[in-house]
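User: New here, please read:
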Amino acid sequence: MRDCGLQDAEIRRQKAIDEWLPITGSRNAKWWYSAFHNVTAMVGAGVLSLPYAMAHLGWGPGVVVLVLSWIITLYTLWQMVEMHEMVPGKRFDRYHELGQHAFGEKLGLYIVVPQQLIVEVGVNIVYMVTGGKSLKKFHDTVCPDHCKEIKLTYFIMIFASVHFVLSHLPNLNSISGVSLAAAVMSLSYSTIAWGASVDKGVQPDVDYGYRASTTTGKVFGFFNALGDVAFAYAGHNVVLEIQATIPSTPEKPSKGPMWKGVVVAYIVVALCYFPVALVGFYIFGNQVEDNILISLEKPAWLIAMANMFVVIHVIGSYQIYAMPVFDMIETVMVKKLRLPPSFLLRFVVRTVYVAFTMFVGITFPFFGGLLGFFGGFAFAPTTYFLPCVMWLAIYKPKRFSLSWIANYICIILGVLLMILSPIGGLRTIIIQAKTYEFYS
């Protein structure tokens, strides 16, 4: 009897912890929450670098890579939505839980958690820098002549100050308003980017050849561009956590509304990615900047507005990617270290994390150069082929069946992406680190 009482007490404790943790704390989301959470997670500021990626890929390979990435990642996202409740009565609320089911308790953690953390922490650092740069661009655009020059460091600190407040919202559903605003902003600044490009018209002496002049530069640039495209499709790292917020019953499983939201999100992704990439490259050719808004200097008010839209969007994106990290840290604190769930614990954990990402962003403001590296090293596995590997391990489709062939094609392409893009990314990092003026 005593053992039963202790067991019941432990079950109640675990239930109370699950209701406190940010991923499982609220399960009343609607299908449209899935739509704008996925848009916010996926359509990041990386969309503005797609014309630059096209300048390194060229028309033919560039279009193929963009279309294939859209198709493959939609397929692997569908797999993850399907696998969320593959075991009756159980939900895989976190990416690593699905990995543990596919590969075993320990191996699943070793495979998934490091990659997921690299993606989520890396994105948060990149967005810390992106938010600061966009604020600086806004300031310099609206006041080009009379205002005092302000260092990028201070703009990153201003951007971080918002997250010192927002990061204390308890769970994913509580940031739904922020995420909705971010999703609207992503569609807005993407439209401004390609619309203003069309208005500017094709530039004189436009050149659609490869941006680099040497063979080595072309090869490394091509590899790095693959990573930039992979970085643009990063939503898989939070998709199970988003689905965990949707209610589910045997009659109405969560995969129905989740998939509806994913389809809407991917339509928005297509409306953002393809026009920006293709129109931007068509207008500016291989002279397009790594952020197309820099190539578009006029009209000043529109470019200033677009940069402020980017700021609002990356605020929401930062929170979407930070929430699973908060969940991991807080889970370790309360389940492994058995610290009591409290406001103080949550306040300290989240404040320290935001301060850490701000510090790294300030110390390495060329962190955006890591897009190509991270795009291949971590984003490609978690987005392009890890869901396929788990699908094969769990469902074991018949050899040479359509499912078997489709999954192995995705795995092969994903592995190639993982191997090639970090090579170009490392070269870009070295060049930027050597040439960057830290106090500019």
Remarks:
- Residues 105-142 form the longest helix (38 residues).
- The domain at 27-434 is CATH 1.20.1740.10 (Amino acid/polyamine transporter I).
